[in-house]
Amino acid sequence: MESKSLEEILREHPFLQGFKPEHIRKMAEMALEVQFARDQIIFREGQESGLFFLILSGKVALEVSAPGRILRVQTLEAGEELGWSSVLGEGGKHFQARSLETVRALAFEGARLRQACEQDPSFGYALMRQLLRVVAERLQATRLQLLDLYAPRAAKLI
Amino acid sequence: MSAAAEKILATTLARVVAVERETHDTFTLSVTPVEGEPPEPFQPGQFSMVYVFGVGELPISISGDPADTERLVYTVRSVGQATHALVSRKPGDVIGVRGPFGTAWPVKEARGKDVLIVAGGIGLAPLRPVIYHVLRNRDDYVRLIVLYGARSPRDLLYRKQLAEWGRAPDTQVLVTVDYGGLSWRGHVGVVTTLFRQLRLHPAETVAFICGPEIMMRYVIRMLEARGVAPQDIYLSMERNMKCGAGFCGHCQLGPYFVCKDGPVFSYRQMQPWLDLHEL
Amino acid sequence: MSEPDAKRGTAVWVSRAGLNQLIANLKAQGYQVVGPRIADGAIVYDAIEGISDLPSGWTEQQEAGTYRLRRRDDDALFGYNLGPQSWKKFLHPPLLRFFAAERNNGELRILPSTEPAPRYALLGVRACELAAIQVLDRVFLKDAFVEPNYASRRRDLVVIAVQCTRAAPTCFCRSMGTGPAVRSGFDVALTELGEGFVAQAGTERGEQLLGSVERAPADEELIRQAQEAVEQAAAQMVRRIETQDLARRLQEALESPHWDDVARRCLACGNCTMVCPTCFCTTVEDTSNVRGNRAERWRKWDSCFTESFSYIHGGSVRTSVRSRYRQWLTHKLSWWVDQFDMFGCVGCGRCITWCPAGIDLTQEVSKLVASG
Q1: Which of A148, C30, C38, C365 fits a 20 to 30 Å CA distance from A83?
Q2: Which domains, from first to last, does chain A contain?
Q3: Who among C108, C148, C286 is closest to B6 (CB)?
């Protein structure tokens, strides 16, 4: 796929809403189109995958393993982001990611994104700002999830 | 005094004609009056005061089809002594019913628009009559979108119907659970995470929300951020109720009696009071 | 001697004997006459047979958290202001059986209630209490639904009002616009002067009642004395609530730190709600017999000061005393206006007298409004 059509794809992805054209171009230069078959492990918990994904189609589950079972804590779909911690580049993955159906995505190497941020602070700001938005959304959803609102005695947690 | 006024506090005996198990703790009961008249017609969102012999009376939303004039249908989650006694009724048993009480989801005002339903947990029960109504009067509405969140896959109500509704024309049904296992291939995440998959036309949308209060507040924030006006957002409030008619005082919420001014309120009505702790 | 007309708008003089006759006539008509009498160290409202049951020569001393019966230096029959009880105990009984039900072989039967509602004649209703009955009328008769139990007791009610000629230090009816002069809602209004009463009918029934007892014309001097006595009560009033814009100002004070201050003193005992003549909240209790084939539902007065009052599955909405005191006060003086276009407080001051912590509604309101 040529970088021009990648640019178009990127322009439509919610993550890059409000990005300047040159920033989108920069992202396109770093993007690699990837595809995962159903039930493929995209990365494992603890693994230093180093990749950040923008999902184009399909559904990914974030999983955590507990003795005797695997819990699915979140699913991500087209238009969402996967592996944001790779952009920070610190430590391994906190969850395992598994494709629940065929997944198409754009992959970015975390190290390259960080390098680009440092070289071009204006790009860096735009990227970090969007990333913060994603993290804030996840944090809010996680807090809500923690409240276990539908449990019979939800208000009696403490 | 009119006969209707006398009837406000008088319970009507009704026989349980069917009990359906929805989940491990939730059951749907269908009842029909023991004698005489069919039950009083109800509007989507209204509730009855349901009496169980020797145990007490409970406010229960009507979860059936408003076009079904023969029966009253209640979906009840067993969370305490009284609800446990109610869901333990068997076909043939007799209970008492008063009502219907309270305000309704404004299905008439929503004509010509997209109807967005956001439900959490047992909160889908008082909204099911809206879904029946919209599907029965499909031409009156544009899109029907149902967002439904539950704790886990085993807590999902009306699973078969959710699948059926999803196949209806111009209908989008998105289901999510807070916690999923390996066998659950659907969405995982709180109900607000479903908004990423929606394309809303905020000016053409009427939203009906029912679920735990915290969940409703979060959903309202999502809707406001997407430009849906407070007067187009409706929510159903829960408060302690003993009478259903504004006499017992228990259900007060600021200027309102939830039993007669609600349970369905527009967000514009509820906006000043919703975030006030312990009001 | 030709007796004067007892038409509305015309004051007449009725002696104590005349009042006794009026009570006897009401009883003969099948009314249960209830009025003030002494019991348990207080003035209470209970059945009376004649004027000898009235608290002749008694008055009371009231202050925040204080109530004591005191002897008067005369033998006035209505020389007190208010005891702990209000007339709501007759119109909206503290305990009422909704129904009894029987269960046999899975079949349920609601047993018909056979008790007819009592016909009450209330004697000694003060201006603030008349206002309180009008508040209850608004809540139970003039809203979306009619409360049948209240309606059946209210329908044939006879009200003999007595104007206050003194004010307790806890009274603030003047600022609430409800007293001390009575204006409407009575069949007969009395003003006690020495050995008798200046009496006036307020309804056709009141005209009949006055018309059937011994009476004399009330001259201008007597009427002037009666007016002055009521004005004296008004002048004695020390407490007040500024009602101007009060409903809105309290809503602006919902997050005031002063609620925490009250909460430190409030015991959440609910006394204020029990003595309040307009507090109408109730709960329901279900009882069943040992065999489990008979059950009853009883309605009881309830108080928004209990934690269970606001219970919904998962917990109570109002767990803190702060929030429960706030609910009570803002309901009386703010939400009530939204709900019923009137205040839920008539200025009787009972909540001040009967608060074991001596919390003074009038003071709390002025502090809240100042802090909002």
Answers
A1: A148
A2: 3-145 (2.60.120.10)
A3: C148
